[in-house]
Amino acid sequence: MHEAREVHDYLLESWLEFHDALRDHPEIKRLLFDPVTGLPTTPLLFPRIESLLEERGEISILCLNVVKYSKIEEIYGWKVFDDVMKQVATALENITGAELRDSDMVAELMISGNAFVVLLSPPRTSDQMVLENLNKLARRVEERIRAELKSALDPALFPKFGCYVGAATVRHDPKIRLERIVHDALDRALQQADSREEQDAEERKARLQDIIENGSVRTFVHPIMRLSDFSVIGYEALSRGPENSEFERPDKLFKIAYDANLVMTLERLCRRRALETARNLPEGRLMFINIEPEAVADPELRDVMFSSLLAESDLAPSSVVLEITERTAITDFAAFRSTLEYLRTLGFAVAIDDAGAGYGSLQCLAEVRPEWLKIDISLIRGVDTDEVRSQLVESLVTFAQRCGVKLIAEGIETRGELEKLIEIGVEFGQGFLFTVPVPPFPSDEEVQPGS
Question: In this structure, are residues 386 and 378 in contact, taking their beta carbons and an 8 Å threshold?
């Protein structure tokens, strides 16, 4: 047993030396190492896999798949998705020594892909890892990676992140080429990850359908302030799922709805709840109602909003601002503009959310020409201490003044941010400095800075 351990350590040391030598060769590095994470790709694991199979006859692997349906790249662009992949690689490094062992080896399935491979070192107590224990390890790694990413990613981005871990064993068979044996195991591990994703999606869809059928959506409001005198000019209606559930946050609620193809049905329920809330809207104030891009063409938006529900709420269209929340990319701007123009003729104003968050929001701004523009929290955070953010916000102020657009700064949390925004010339804002989203409607005294 002692001799086997010495052989194992020697092979590991030799592989690491080979690995480091390859990394120093620019052309090979470009072909075999992922440029984003710096991790080796699967082919570089083959020498190690071959030696372990010859020594032990069987090894185990994990595959971590960052799910594509999250649409992170489609909405925010490839650079943001690359950052997410870096964070996943960092998370895998962070759990080494805990869920993973120091001698486990991590690689990417392919360059610029969305999956990671973990070659597990041999178990200490037996020749083979029991399948049940292997699956339990996959679940622990999956849960830990999600926890790590929840801490690392922006709160608005994390709900769009998803990952699943599958496991498989690789058995030595001298009759079959090594590469085919390994790729077969990788396919099985990825299929297991996919099946877990599908099972989770079906269960979430069933729970969401129950929420919609029971009308279990609550409306909170987040005041929008005039920064010059801290007066309330309106409220953003925010939908919440059942308390203390995975559906409570609106971003998570709508992500699941998109995955389950229930976004239109959910949107209708949230819109009705928001308009029911608006019955008690203080006089002279605006109600910002979030609208998903694909819901802009919803016939009910034309038929119900300006007729029965608006009438029941005693609310004029001029008191409603339709806030476009770009959770998915807009693909047909011509049709989108046409529908918005019709809604404008009815008296509704239009706002665009998350300006500055990425290319998609800037294109939306150019195409839609909104009356209101919300500056994304990523530009507001630290605007008082970051000259680049300050200059970017100032350029948006100049743009808004020239185009007659009203600016709202989202996510104001500190006095320093507030004072800097006032200095730059941002007219309106909202954020936790004033209040968190609350049941409608708070008194003006409750929403002053620091209240």
Answer: no
Peptide bond into 441 cis (omega under 30): yes
Q: Is 66 helix (H, G, I), strand (E, B) or coil?
A: strand
CA pair distance 395, 362, nearest whole angstrom:
13
CATH 3.40.190.10 is right for the domain spanning 18-204: no
pLDDT of residue 5: 47
Single pTM value for the model: 0.67
d(CA 17, CA 111): 22
Can you give the residue ranges of every domain in the chain? 18-204, 216-447
**Number of Cβ within a 10 Å radius of residue 13:** 10
Q: What is the pLDDT of residue 329?
A: 61
Question: Cα separation of 381 and 387, whole Å?
Answer: 12
Indicate the fold that domain 216-447 takes in CATH.
TIM Barrel (3.20.20)
pLDDT single digits (tens) 137-192 = 999 999 999 999 999 998 878 878 889 999 999 998 889 988 899 999 999 999 99
Q: What is the pLDDT of residues 293-334, one digit of tens each?
A: 777 777 777 665 556 667 777 778 889 999 987 655 666 777
- Contact partners, residue 163, CB within 8 Å, separation at least 6: 64, 65, 66, 67, 88, 142, 145, 146, 149
Residue 48: pLDDT above 70? yes
Q: Which residue has the tokens 């950052």?
A: 83
